[in-house]
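User: Thanks for the earlier help. One more: Secernin 3. Can you show the sequence and predicted structure together?

Assistant: Of course, both are below.
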Amino acid sequence: MEPFSCDTFVALPPATVDNRIIFGKNSDRLCDEVQEVVYFPAAVHDNLGEHLKCTYIEIDQVPETYTVVLSRPAWLWGAEMGANEHGVCIGNEAVWGREEVCDEEALLGMDLVRGSS
């Protein structure tokens, strides 16, 4: 059976034991696609004139990035889900709309997840 959709959930206190926050996500990626869990430490970037290679396009490098732990398909720059050192968690979801899809290369939703983590 082909995957159909993703689901993301969060459980917040007081519904959790010891006032914990629980974040989870399943993925609709194919079962044989390698999914990596990766760690990127916080960094200060002094190469602000350079571009950062994302999955399909390049963007300007930001001055500072936070420590993140990400789960991502091995072939792309972005991520399915992640969390940063400040406790911000985010997951990728498909959003279906009525607007025409652009033919130009752009950031993927998963690229935005990595950039937001």
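User: Great, one quick takeaway?

Assistant: The chain has a mean pLDDT of 90.
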